[in-house]
Amino acid sequence: MKWLFLASGRGSNFEAVAKAVQAGKLPNTQIVGLICNRAKAPVLATAESLGVPSLLIDSSSFRTANGKWDRPAYEAELEKQIAHFQPDMVALGGYMLLLSKSLVQRWSNRIVNIHPSLLPAFPGLGAQKQALDAGAKRTGCTVHLVNEHLDAGAVVEQRELDILPGENEASLSERLLPLEHAAYVHAIDRLSREKFEVRGNQIVWLG
Asked: Which residue ranges make up each domain of the chain?
């Protein structure tokens, strides 16, 4: 199965999956490329070092006449380039732009994201801080399909982590990262190997 990654920053989840593919741990997975929307994002250098074709579509360069971000123009170019890579599935690896409803619907059940909480708890930005502020004892990460609602698609995989006494946002984020990497590698491997259907926002694995 051919996968395309979208990323905005350091791309550690992309790196974890790409290295697993190169090590032969995901024999049914091929990463055909990476699209990044930020010119100086470290993930671009990571893709180059791993030999993964990459493309920059700088979202900051898409402006209307009055200087506002032209989302339709940006997404038109994004969709054009996604089609160029011809992926079967799209994975978001720290992609910090919300995808439009129309794009998500055209790629229904073929876009995957990872989120640093046990969804539906703590969706959106700052999930680790949300968990700490709420006094949660456990958190984790969730790999899920992307739908038109924020962090609300069908869950592919979840992994849990205890929140330690005295934990802060930085330490919790650091301890969550290896969990995210392992979960994303395993989830993408399974999605590449097994057929599935989504019924009532639940994944049903067909083998």
From this structure: 1-97, 113-207
**Residues 118, 119, 122, 125, Cα dihedral to 10°:** 100
Half-sphere exposure of 19 (CA within 13 A, CB side): 11
- Confidence tier at 67 by pLDDT (50, 70, 90): confident
The hierarchical CATH code for the domain 113-207 is 3.40.50.170
Q: Counting beta carbons within 10 angstroms of the beta carbon of residue 170, is it exposed (0 to 12), middle (13 to 18) or buried (19 or more)?
A: exposed
Interatomic CA distance for residues 74 and 5, integer angstroms = 17
Question: What is the pLDDT at residue 65?
Answer: 86
- List own/partner pairs for 193-199 with CB under 8 A and 24 or more apart: 193/28, 198/109, 198/145, 198/154
Phi-psi region for residue 41, left (φ > 0), alpha (ψ -120 to 50) or beta? beta
CATH topology identical between 1-97 and 113-207: yes
- Residue 54 DSSP one-character state: E
Instruction: Give the residue numbers annotated as catalytic, written as ranges.
Output: 115
pLDDT tens digits, one per residue of 123-150: 999 999 999 999 999 999 999 999 999 9
The answer regarding whether domain 1-97 maps to CATH 3.50.50.60 reads no
pTM above 0.70, yes or no: yes
In which band, very low, low, confident or very high, does the pLDDT at 6 lie, cut at 50, 70 and 90?
Answer: very high
